[in-house]
Structures are given as structure tokens and as C-alpha cells.
Amino acid sequence: MLHEVQRYMDLSPTSVPHKVIRDTEFYNYHIPEGTMVLPLLSSVLVDPKLFKNPDEFDPENFLDENGCFKKNGFFAFGVAVCLGEALARVDLFLFFTSLLQRFTFTGTKPFRGDQHRASVLQLWPHATFL
């Protein structure tokens, strides 16, 4: 559930700037060594190749065919992983667990995909910038 909340809410649609360490070809674009690039993460989070209904809130996006959790590679990984990620995930888990233990939540009318999605930095849906 938390992964889907983070995917759908998309508080930070861009990553931190990265410096290209060697000449690179990306989708037929030449990116010279030393170029600063700003990855647009939100384009991955609404990719229909990765999510069957990318504009809908669907916690099953992170479940495999057996109903088990599957972590996708577009969340932080590798040497660029946020050092505070593990602590942040534990805090999120404890926060939401305590809410669920203390309160009863009921649904309202379903959210429609054409409604405004909140974001700290607002970008256009399905935008790709190179």
C-alpha cells in the first residue's frame, strides 16, 4: 500500500541532478561526459508498460500473481539510494499502522483519474523531457 501511495502521490517528480561520467547514447540522443541530467521520475510512475492502469490508485500494482509484494526497480537503488530511505520507510509504516489501529476508515466516492493529482512540483501527466 505504501509503495502505491508514493507512486500515485508523486511528491517529488524529479530526482536530484546527476552528472554523466562518460559519453552516453540514450534513445538516439548523444549526452556528452560532464552533462548534468535531471531524471523525470514521474514519467516512470505513470508508464502503462509498468502499470496496467497508471492513472488509477491500485495497490495491486505492487503484488505479483500470487499476491506477494514485489519491489519495482524505479524506487531508490544502487549507489544513489537515499541514506535515510530505510528510516523513512519504518516511520511511514509506524505512522500508518498506528492510524489503522486507532481509527476506522470508510470510503467516499472513488477518485477519478481526470481529477487533479497533488504534487509539490506540478508537471504534466505522461510528460517526457530529454
Keyphrases for this structure?
130 residues, alpha+beta, 3 helices, 23% helix, 8% strand, iron ion binding
What's the arrangement of secondary structure elements?
Elements: H1 2-9, E1 18-19, E2 24-26, E3 29-31, E4 36-37, H2 42-45, H3 85-102
Antiparallel strand pairs: 1-4, 2-3
GO cellular component, one term: cytoplasm
Pfam families: p450 (PF00067)
Binding site for heme: 82
Q: Could you say which structural class the secondary elements and strand pairing correspond to? A: alpha+beta
Low-confidence stretches: none
Shape: elongated
Beta-strand content bin: 5-15%
SSE series:
HEEEEHH
Strand order of the largest sheet: 1-4
Distance between the termini: 31 Å
Number of helices: 3
Describe this structure in words.
With 130 residues, this protein is an alpha+beta fold. The chain has one domain (2-102). The protein has 3 helices and 4 strands. It has a two-stranded antiparallel sheet with strand order 1-4. A hairpin with a 2-residue loop joins β2 and β3. The two termini are 31 Å apart. The model has no long low-confidence stretch (mean pLDDT 78). Belongs to the cytochrome P450 family.
Summarize the structure.
With 130 residues, the chain is of the alpha+beta class. It has helices spanning 2-9, 42-45, 85-102, and strands at 18-19, 24-26, 29-31, 36-37.
